[in-house]
Amino acid sequence: MKFLYSDTQDYVNPNYDFINDCHEPGHKRYWDDKYAHEIVDPEPYDGLLMSMSSVRQIKGVSGSKVHYSTAEEQRLLREGARKFLRYNQPHHMDKMVMGDCGAFAYATLPTPAYSPQEVIEFYIDAEFTHGCSPDHIIFDCDLNNPSANDLIAAGKSNILDRYNITLQNAEEFLKLNQFENKPFEAIAPVQGWSPQSMANAAVELEKIGYEYLAIGGLVPLNMPTIHEVLQTIRKQIKPETKIHLLGFAKANYIQDFTGYGITSFDSTSPLIKAFKDNKNNYFMPDGKGGIKFYTAIRIPQSIENYRLMQGIKMGILSTDLLIKKERLALDTIRNFDKGLVSVEDTLDIIIDYHSYLLLESHDGHTPQQLRELERTRSLMKVTLEEKPWKNCGCSICQSCGVEVIIFRGSNRNKRRGFHNLSIYHTYVQNILEN
User: Fold this and answer.
1) 100 belongs to the catalytic site
2) What's domain 46-267's architecture?
3) In the annotation, is 94 catalytic?
4) Looking at the whole model, is its pTM more than 0.85?
């Protein structure tokens, strides 16, 4: 089972100055930066996935999240994804570089944003090893397994349209790939409104000629529903048919899905948790084959943080005071790392600064906000008492030390995300070995 990371242009500056919080003079984005596979040892994933919707603007979708500029897209297609992502060292050449369409990005449209022909051309130019046909996501998943006629009677014929579009696109896509002498392995996304309809689609895709299926639409589904979907599909398809889980948001529970013959899955969850989760920001092995989660120490940038800036604009907070508190918090966590400050004294200073994030008026904190501060303190206390960054041998923690546990700015937060990817990848490998 291979773990793929979905590219969203996540890289860090290896020469970032943490003390002064700045890049070196003349720093050039991307060119002077490093991807996780360039600075994490051992490498934290088995391959990369790139979504077409993150590269190419979607017509008819306002505010679509395109990470690439036009110039970057042109260079990607000129050089190929492997070279562009700097995933082209000798030991990378047998690893997957997979493309998909990013169906969530155009889910509001009546039809997929890209035609099979356009997708084929994109995959060939980008030199992907594997590529998914353009699907149209279906969000419903009814465990009662209603029939197609039931959908029509319920006024949900649009769901049936998405189902048929996905199958039709897959058939055309496979023919085009065969016509081009199969420059990559074609993968067919499976969409459906129920476990049985998804199994029916999977069987149809096998008949068309697919040997690799990607199960889509899993992100909003709960664990029991995902199990029901996979059980139903696996019972009705060939045992040798490969399965990929697209955008598997339940990455922490991958061990529960090993019985379905999963060939590969992609997830950004370990990295995203580093800066979007309220408490599970830093991963470490728990000593029992699982993962233990720690809360990062939040010390936001005083004159760049949105909440603090709003407080300044409203006259609730003082810029000079915030800068002073911020500097004290940073100095304290670094001195704590050196053994010069106790856990409780460090927490007092960190929480004092953190409290300004919650302040919304001159009247002080509400009882609810005070409870939230106590909860945050208790979570951070565990982190400070156990000092997990000191016990980690990964190249990230070895190179930047305590900075990795500070929740602050992209260069720290993404480094912590890279560390999480490394811990998670080892966890997945251990699952397979056991």
Assistant:
1) yes
2) Alpha-Beta Barrel (3.20)
3) no
4) yes
